[in-house]
From TrEMBL, chains A, B:
Domain named Acyl-CoA dehydrogenase/oxidase N-terminal: residues: 79-156
Name listed for the protein in its UniProt record: Acyl-CoA dehydrogenase
Family: Belongs to the acyl-CoA dehydrogenase family.
Cofactor(s) annotated in UniProt: FAD
Ranges of residues in domain Acetyl-CoA dehydrogenase-like C-terminal: 480-587
Species per Swiss-Prot/TrEMBL record: Brevundimonas halotolerans
Acyl-CoA dehydrogenase/oxidase C-terminal domain location: 280-445
Domain annotation Acyl-CoA oxidase/dehydrogenase middle: ranges: 160-263
Taxonomic placement: Bacteria, Pseudomonadati, Pseudomonadota, Alphaproteobacteria, Caulobacterales
Length: 594, 594
């Protein structure tokens, strides 16, 4: 099944739902305009469609293999990687001072959505490099930037993020890998790490590992962790590639999906490393790049959902079965059966919502970074912080659910591996887990992001969302407006209740019990708000005679589909939000036992 | 991960939620009492835990293989099959006249839940035999029953259901396989069939294929299809095994899950067959057994969910990570984190609801068959018909969602195949598809079952459900009662609206658009009703000093968990139910295109 980059949807979201004006007004993106957006998306679509998508199935079948002390990627991946980096994709949003193009993160995310749609297992390799770039950019010395950052930005080398250990997953504070000073300014790294995505491969000359470990005598727990850099190959004084460093992959996991992405168990056995940033500040340094990594995973959820959607739409267009109630055709395409059309419409609406949430998060990060006025910058930072866990968790849950709907559209063929639908369902399942499980995201939202500014960011967002009601009432009659009004008042009630419980001495368990449902409620409603803004933008464009009127009418219908099929969830979310922690204490281990 | 049959939950559901009294009152089950129920469940648990569960992972890895013109099952399956049939499981609910034990279908379903939990790929083989047994029992001649039925009931032979063709899936009326009279009373079968579960294997001496095909000059469409029986090996006059019949597996599908269950492409090349039942009545004959097959698939959904739940509960009990807000323990079992406890509690509540729905459907079938008073029998038949699509679709959707939650509880380990969580997620995904996709179930519910008696069965069920409100108000304060009351009034509103739209000339598309959401609403609420009845039964048992008081308190909490986390969905379902078909017509192919 071939993939077609959704250029129209991506462009519409960036230009008309979110708008480029705020970004342009900062002056930080002198090259940015609608034409640049279109050109970047088109180029991304070309490499994703032409180079990456054709390797998706073969990569799944072949997988990456550990041979000796190195990982051999699936056939064709090395060549595809070289084609990919020629496009300059690693540097799209990187600083111009180090060879980047200095464009907004939001545009990079939009371009990478097509990469993840085309080949999610491949996409993880550049995605992890982007995380290493961000970490080095923020915390590296000038020498480290010159030596490593520019090679990562060009794509000549890749980066890997080395955090997890068997007993330190969600709780990184428990990690035990050590780094001992060697006396020459470098450190000797020891320990075993797991879940190291693209931790080894032969597609580039070198791989830059960003490793969390403890210095001797470091405090126990999260405040005793430092960040290190260890290249796979040490560098000679002239910068040429020297000896292999003392670390290696000792296992590649046998996984449900993303088979072509090697998930390595890595052993560090006296590996030479440099400190990045300040001693014992490793976790804090990681947090500075965590928002970016999390929204990038959200975009993976959107990407895999888009792919599953396109695959299912093609099947529903071709497959004929039964008489259509609409057309009367005896052996009609199944797209002409209401239940199938409804399923595809809901898939499309949810994808559009997730896409807007993720790109809005990226844009908030851009504005937080580039706004000259510190108050404005702080406001955008608050928006970025608030949206990040929602972008990550809501979009990746959506990815799994949409991939499952994609299988269902295929009927029996969906369960046969050859249609591809099953692969999307397998691949999609990792995104709710890594980069902080969605449960962790929900706890981050209610435990930190919601209250870090006394709830100001959430209140500001709610007030902004309310302003959609008046224009919406001019576009729609009745239900579509009511549903948004109800949804907004549910968000407001839930937010106030949570802030109140959070402030109460005995409220923590209630807040944590509510976390998942609150995140889902926020995602449902924020997504609906963006779709409503999209419908309003479509109406304006249509009134101005710009764009394809039929397609714009579709955006107006799309919000209605979303309102009828998703926004109605608010009351179920409220019931779950308010259930309280005490009920769960009655579900004792003895009660839970079979 | 070892499996433990949930004897307490199964027994409680049969004996206290549903009650044996109605079955006993028919006089059709003279042996039935609480001790028999316990003994049967315990024996089922033993074979499932001891014989079938240990082959689940190895069966998934090895799969079934096509070699030459035969399928070789995964290692150990043949021996396990022989152990299994020694228990007499194929005849539990079969008529005593042909070697069965004449116990209720509901008890058989409860026993088979443990089989599907233990090894879903294995469970399909006896499950398909049960379908063949039911078809032969209803439509076979005495000679066919003597020759084939008894061997199927003893398990000496297995049965296969041969329906689907590449262009005839959901629309069986389109099938083209032919059966030509040979002049000696037998027929020559020709055609290719797909998705034939356990269509071939070497575990038994013979396999009885029940095949849909067309007689010469049969009318086009669904009214020209007849049912045939073709054994893999023809029988000599003395009943001994003769020549191999002219059909064979020509392919085994490469599937997402249930790898050990061979899904065969079968070629019939002049195979010798007997007619079963009346010419051109094949589809109607199939429909008489379809309810049983559908609820059996619903039970698969419950079984795989139970297995995923147990696996996740064990992991959450062992895995330690982070400080518990409840216990203060620094490195607490993740079960002591509210979000994990909530997830497991919701899994358990949804499984209990699905289990009750499926067993209630089986019990309604038993009562429809065995009630002496024809009016009573008719009422139970209406209940069976109404519940069947809900049991099938709601429970299998639940199976997928609970399996996905099971992965999530494991964090990163859930994505690694070795924990088993990934296998449940893969295996579970077939159940919403086969035996009529869940979309077909929803259409069956709103298009046929709801209105076949003018809505009488639905109204009767709603009235019966309402009677729970008074005792519920004596057990709980506030929310748990309100939620059930709201849910019941939502079901009533939706049902009346659908009956009204169904009667309207232009209402068909609205009804079909609503189908999925209506089925989900019905399942949510009926499941909640059974959990409420369970809570009330638990209270009574506790008051009488019977049973384990802590466990019974757990049943009282379980309904509250369900009410807070599932019953709140009613308003979202209502919004989707009422959206109307016209909205979807605005989602044109041009709008849906990427």
């Amino acid at each position: 099944m071939s993939y077609r980059a959704p250029l129209r949807d991506l462009g519409f979201t960036l230009k008309h739902v979110l708008g480029l004006e705020d970004l342009q007004a900062t002056g930080a993106y002198p090259d940015l305009d609608a034409d640049v957006v279109d050109a970047v998306l088109e180029a991304a679509g070309q490499v994703s469609e032409g180079t990456l998508a054709p390797l998706n199935v073969s990569g799944d079948r072949a997988g990456s293999k550990l041979e000796g002390d190195g990982v051999i990627p699936a056939p064709g991946f090395g060549e595809a990687y070289r084609t990919f980096i020629e496009g300059g994709w690693m540097g799209l949003a990187a600083p111009t001072a180090h060879g980047g193009q200095g464009l907004p993160k939001a545009l990079e995310l939009a371009a990478f959505e097509t990469v993840h749609s085309a080949n999610m297992a491949f996409g993880l390799c550049p995605m992890l490099s982007l995380a290493a770039i961000e970490a080095l950019e923020a915390h590296g010395t000038e020498a480290q930037k010159t030596t490593y950052l520019e090679k990562l930005i060009s794509g000549e080398w890749t980066g890997a993020m080395v955090l997890t250990e068997p007993n330190a997953g969600s709780d990184l504070g428990a990690l035990t890998a050590t780094a001992t000073p060697k006396g020459d300014g470098t450190y000797s790294l020891n320990g075993q790490k797991i879940y190291i995505t693209w931790g080894d491969h032969d597609m580039t000359d070198n791989i830059v590992h960003m490793v969390l470990a403890r210095l001797p005598d470091a405090p126990l727990g999260p405040k005793g962790i430092s960040l290190f850099l260890a290249p796979k190959y040490l560098l000679n004084a002239d910068g040429s590639r020297g000896e292999r460093n003392a670390f290696r992959p000792v296992g590649v996991e046998h996984k449900l999906g993303i088979h072509a992405s090697p998930t390595c168990v890595m052993a560090y056995e006296g590996a030479t490393a440099e400190l990045v940033g300040l001693p014992n500040e490793g976790l804090a340094h990681m947090f500075t790049m965590m928002n970016a990594a999390r929204v990038a995973v959200g975009v993976e959820g959107v990407g895999i959902a888009e792919r599953a959607y396109q695959n299912a739409l093609a099947y529903a267009t071709d497959r004929r079965q039964g008489r259509s109630v609409w057309t009367g055709e005896a052996s009609a395409p199944i797209l002409d059966h209401p239940d199938v059309r409804r399923t595809l419409s809901v898939m499309k609406a949810r994808i559009a919502a997730g896409r807007a949430i993720c790109l809005a998060t990226g844009m908030a990060a851009d504005l937080a970074r580039s706004s000259a006025d510190p108050d404005v910058a702080r406001q955008w930072k608050g928006r970025e912080d608030l949206l990040t866990p929602i972008a990550k968790a809501w979009s990746t849950d959506m990815g799994v659910e949409v991939a499952s709907m994609g299988i269902q559209i295929h009927g029996g063929m969906g369960f046969i591996e050859e249609t591809g639908a099953a692969q999307y369902y397998r691949d999609a399942r990792i995104a709710p887990i890594y980069e902080g499980t969605n449960g962790i995201q929900a706890m981050d939202l209610v435990g930190r992001k919601l209250s870090q500014d006394g709830g100001a960011s959430a209140r500001l967002l709610i007030e902004e969302m309310k302003t959609v009601l008046t224009p919406l009432a001019a576009l729609y009659d009745g239900k579509p407006v009511e549903r948004m009004a109800n949804a907004l008042s549910a968000v407001e009630d839930a937010t106030l209740w949570l802030l109140d419980r959070k402030a109460a001495e005995d409220g923590t368990a209630d807040v944590l019990t509510a976390a998942d449902a609150y995140l889902k409620l926020m995602g449902d409603v924020i997504g609906g708000w963006f779709l409503a803004r999209g419908a309003l933008a479509a109406q304006t464009l249509k009134a101005n005679g710009e764009g394809d009127a039929d397609w714009l009418d579709g955006r107006i219908a799309l919000y209605e589909v979303y309102a009828a099929n998703v926004l109605g969830h608010v009351s179920s979310r409220l019931a779950a939000i308010g259930q309280g922690g005490d009920l769960l204490l009655r579900m004792t281990p003895a009660v839970l036992a079979p």
